[in-house]
Design a protein that fits this description.
- The complex is a heterodimer of chains A (321) and B (324).
- Chain A has 321 residues and is of the alpha/beta class.
- Helices cover 45% and strands 11% of the residues of chain A.
- Chain A has a single domain, classed as 3-Layer(aba) Sandwich (Rossmann fold), CATH 3.40.50.970.
- Chain A has a six-stranded parallel β-sheet, sandwiched between helices.
- Chain B is built from twelve helices and 14 strands.
- In chain B, strand 6, helix 7 and strand 7 form a beta-alpha-beta unit.
- By secondary structure, chain B is α/β, with parallel strands linked by helices.
- Chain B has a seven-stranded mixed β-sheet with strand order 3-2-4-5-7-6-12, sandwiched between helices.
- Chain B folds into two domains: 182 residues, 3-Layer(aba) Sandwich (Rossmann fold), CATH 3.40.50.970; 128 residues, Rossmann fold.
- Classes of the chains: A alpha/beta (321), B alpha/beta (324).
- Chains A and B meet through helix 5 and helix 6 of A and helix 3, helix 4 and helix 5 of B.
Chain lengths: 321, 324
């Protein structure tokens, strides 16, 4: 990977972190409503994944979607505006934290029903297969989603029909407050892909370059073979499941242990050790991010509320009947 | 005008739209090699091949969820539910995903998908396979729910449904595939969201749809032989609901009976009656009566099943009651 792209990835990861930290403050201040699930700790996963895609490859994810949105090229301004429910958000303030999408960036949402977007992801790939192109759909979901029926119907169909889907299980060790061992028949989640005869791999999700390399390989396989691939990415969320999480289910030492493996810290060290960047260059990126976040919050706060008539727009796409 | 069956009308609509638009394809259980469990897609597999007539696993979430995804990227899938009862397995997609995606993402996504579903009782299929749960689906903004009662409407409405940019649930009745009716020659469509007067009359108004239309037209014949002339208004679309012909008819007759095959409680009839009272209270000359299914899970035994389902005689006596 070229130096410029590596620095760009670093920028994306820091931007996600700072946008979310600021988002958490705005949530506490009552400016963001509903449920909000932070991606902090998992930034290397979507950053590495999405860096490896081609523009024509589609991305679809669950409700922990702010980072994915930023990696897909959606601006911090638009993310912040959607969080604040403003008319300038990409879903016009009607979707909120869990429903970020921008079809022009090939980002197909933020979906809030656990596992519910997996058959839809298969469907995106059905559409591409029907159109006889070799676009790939990258579908991200948590470990918790692998225990629900949707997962199994979607994987079975993808393998049976030869759909070009990269199934990405972000194994952050907990489905809400229930650990993998307490919820899943197998701890090693990719065994479930084995059950469907699906090629699979596992990668360390705290190292963005490892995620990138593993994704490149997986995408190459999918594109060439016309078959799905299952990638299990081990990661950890540093914050609670959502903003209202008492975190009674895990010990502070466990969180601390993972936090020592901060994906941003790991990448920072990598860039310095390999002499890809100077400390000054990385500091500059961080300073730039601070400014971007300040600007994004200003943009969102100064943006208009959705007009009252927006309540009744977009119920149907047809202009008549 | 040619006289064809409901089955032929639906088949023709599918075939014409597939020939017209290469984005249209069919997916569902046994739609291909088998030819459709109600033989609606008989011959399609040979004509269009496996890419356009997709036999799916028995996996309703994959069928409807998959169709939604394909629709989002610009295809026009027609997903078939072997029976509407199996739709309950895919409820998340039918009521919680498809109708929300356009609105929730600020108009970015379109879901031009049709779900064809077979509903209704009368074939001794037992309680889990015989339901008429149309009202449940019609509850949700964002979904269009169509349920025709004649071959002409079935063909014209299905063609409109396939061309619609919105998700449409198209409900057919399991006992009506052999019903014959006149269908216009050549190309035509019928707009979604328009009720229709299927029979004119001046003494009372019957509001109904789908199987209820078949029963109501028979009841109207019987009543006519006794000198009572009823007007029959067919909803054809449950959402968006067109009240105009109903209110117009009611203002003329001042008396109404609402007929549906589903259960009375929280049903389609409840909605229609409420709206008549809201919109035409000053014209009410008698309490409006609902004819509907008895409040029981539908039994297998033929006599018991028929006793639970609304019958022509029930409609005849309801009309006489509102005319008292």
């Amino acid at each position: 990977m070229k130096k410029e792209q590596q620095l760009d990835l670093y920028h994306q990861m820091v931007l996600i972190r700072r946008v979310e930290e600021r988002g958490a403050e705005l949530y506490q201040a009552g400016k963001i409503g509903g449920f909000m699930h932070l991606y902090i700790g998992q930034e290397a996963v979507s950053t590495g994944l999405i860096a490896a895609r081609e523009e024509r490859d589609r991305v679809i994810t669950a409700y922990r979607d702010h980072g994915v949105a930023i990696n897909c090229g959606i601006s911090a301004d638009a993310v912040m505006a959607e969080l604040l429910g403003k008319a300038t958000g990409m879903s016009k303030g009607k979707g909120g934290s869990m429903h970020m999408a921008d079809t022009s960036k090939n980002m197909w949402g933020g979906h809030a029903i656990v596992g519910g977007h997996l058959p839809i992801a298969a469907g995106l790939a059905i559409g591409d297969q029907y159109a006889k192109n070799d676009n790939i759909t990258i579908c991200m979901f948590g470990d918790g989603a692998t225990n629900i029926g949707y997962f199994h119907e979607a994987l079975n169909l993808a393998k049976t029909w030869g759909l070009r889907v990269l199934w990405v299980c972000e194994n952050n060790q907990y489905g809400m407050g229930t650990s993998v061992e307490r919820a899943s028949a197998v701890d090693d989640i990719r065994q479930k892909a084995e059950g469907y005869g699906m090629k699979n791999a596992e990668v360390d999700g705290m190292d963005v370059m490892k995620v990138y390399e593993a994704t490149k390989e997986a995408l190459e396989f999918i594109r060439k073979e016309g078959q799905p691939f299952f990638l299990e990415i081990d990661t950890y969320r540093f914050r609670g499941h959502s903003m209202g999480d008492p975190e009674r289910y895990r010990k502070a030492e466990e969180v601390k242990k993972w936090q020592e493996n901060d994906p941003i810290g790991i990448f920072n060290k990598y860039l310095l050790d390999k002499k890809i960047a100077t400390r000054k260059a990385l500091d500059e990126i961080e300073a730039r991010v601070e400014e971007e976040v300040i600007k994004a919050v200003e943009f969102a706060e100064n943006s208009p509320e959705p007009a009252p008539e927006e309540l009744f727009t977009d119920i149907y796409a047809d202009t008549e009947n | 005008m040619a006289k064809i069956t409901m089955r032929e009308a639906i088949s023709q609509a599918l075939m014409e739209e597939m020939d017209r638009d290469p984005a249209v394809f069919i997916m569902g259980e046994e739609v291909g090699v088998w030819g459709g469990t109600y033989a609606v897609t008989k011959g399609f597999y040979d004509k269009y091949g496996p890419d356009r007539i997709k036999d799916t696993p028995i996996a309703e979430n994959a069928i409807i969820g998959g169709a939604i995804g394909a629709a989002m990227v610009g295809q026009r899938p027609v997903a078939e539910l072997m029976t509407i009862n199996f739709g309950f397995s895919a409820m998340d997609y039918i009521i919680n995903q498809a109708p929300k995606l356009h609105y929730m993402f600020g108009g970015q996504f379109k879901v031009p998908m049709v779900i064809r579903a077979v509903g209704g009782g009368g074939r001794q299929l037992g309680a889990t396979h015989s339901q008429t749960p149309d009202a449940i689906f019609a509850h949700f903004p964002g979904l269009k729910v169509v349920s025709p009662g004649t071959p002409e409407d079935a063909k014209g409405l299905l063609k409109s449904a396939i061309r619609s940019d919105d998700p449409v649930l198209f409900i057919e009745h399991a006992t009506m595939y052999q019903v014959r009716g006149e269908v216009p020659e050549g190309e035509y469509t019928i707009p979604i969201g328009k009720s229709k007067v299927q029979r004119e009359g001046s003494d009372a108004t019957i509001v109904t749809y789908c199987k209820g239309l078949e029963l109501s037209m028979k009841a109207a014949d019987e009543l006519a032989s006794q000198g009572i002339n009823v007007e029959v208004v067919d909803l054809r679309t449950l959402r968006p609901l067109d009240m105009e012909p109903i209110i117009e008819s009611f203002k003329k007759t001042n008396r109404a009976v609402v007929v549906e095959e589903g259960w009375k409680s929280y049903g389609v009839g409840s909605e229609i009656v409420s709206r008549i009272y809201e919109q035409a209270f000053d014209y009410v000359d008698a309490p409006i009566i609902r004819v509907a299914q008895k409040e029981v899970p539908l039994p297998y035994n033929r006599t018991l099943e028929q006793a639970a389902l609304p019958q022509v005689a029930d409609i005849v006596s309801a009309v006489k009651e509102v005319l008292k």
